[in-house]
Amino acid sequence: MNINIEQINSELRTKTPSEIIQWAIEFAKNPVVTTNFRPYEVAILHATNTVKPDLKVIWCDTGYNTPQTYKHAEIIIKQLDLNIHLYVPKQTTAHRDVVLGIPHVDEPKHKLFTEQVKLEPFRRAMAEHQPDLWFTNLRKGQTAFRNSIDIVSQGADGIIKVSPFYYWSDEELDAYLIEHNLPNELKYFDPTKQLENRECGLHA
After folding, report:
1. CATH for the stretch 5-180
2. CA distances from 166 to 16, 48, 137, 163 (A)
3. According to its UniProt record, in which pathway does this protein act (predicted)?
4. CA atoms within 13 A on the CB side of 87
5. Strands 133-135 and 160-162
6. Rounded CA gap, 60 and 122, in Å?
7. DSSP structural state of residue 119
8. DSSP letters of 128-145?
9. For residue 202, which of 126, 89, 97, 110 has the smallest C-alpha distance?
10. Which of 25, 168, 180, 203 is the most exposed place for a label (fewest CB within 10 A)?
């Protein structure tokens, strides 16, 4: 899919998330939104769901979420009536805890761990759904890589990535959640990152 990324970002810079999503939905043939139900994820799920209620929502669950995250996910899925497509690692968490555990990010086995719990399920999801456009809740200021992209970017795989809330702050998202009566949950754990400003592996 060939588009002028720079020109599109210039045009979308002053648009609202809803307007950005509307543009993307009209542009795309097979869009999806991905989620891990981390803090503030409900914003992108609500915004995309409002424009396209039947949008496919791909949830790649590492198996290491907190009890609070799982409860939060169930509340959001029900409240928004999400079209959820769940993907999990091929090995159970209990089995992996015995043979591998959760390696520190500096350990050689961390790469294998990330492949098992995050990258393989994600590739499987993308291969099955073959999206041409991918909604995410990436925001400027989260990681060095994310600072280098914009509202619209394109990966090496050709998939267009759209981040409608790219320039929004936590405070602006808090206001959005209050306005739309949406819950948030801050007790979240990503076993592949361990540090908040570390890239998760799906986007870089």
Report:
1. 3.40.50.620
2. 11, 14, 7, 5
3. Sulfur metabolism; hydrogen sulfide biosynthesis; sulfite from sulfate
4. 22
5. parallel
6. 6
7. I
8. HH--SEEE----TTS-HH
9. 126
10. 180
DSSP 120: H
As a whole number of angstroms, the distance between CA 73 and CA 183 comes to 10
CB 166 within 8 Å of CB 136: no
3-class DSSP state for residue 104? coil
SS3 content of the chain, % helix, strand, coil (to 5): 40, 10, 45
Query: If you write DSSP's letter for every residue of 4-33 in order, what string do you get?
Result: -HHHHHHHHTTS-HHHHHHHHHHH-SSEEE
- Phi, psi (rounded to 5 degrees) for 152: -120, 130
pLDDT, one tens digit per residue, over 79-103 is 999 999 999 999 999 999 999 999 9
User: How do residues 145-182 score in pLDDT, each as one tens digit?
Assistant: 667 789 999 988 889 999 999 999 999 999 999 999 99
Structure tokens at 196: 């908040």
Reported pTM: 0.90
In whole angstroms, how far apart are CA 86 and each of 19, 63, 89, 125? Answer: 28, 11, 10, 9
How far is it, in rounded angstroms, from Cα 172 to Cα 110? 35
Q: What is the dihedral of CA 44, 49, 52, 55, to 10 degrees?
A: 80
Q: What letter represents residue 79's amino acid? A: Q
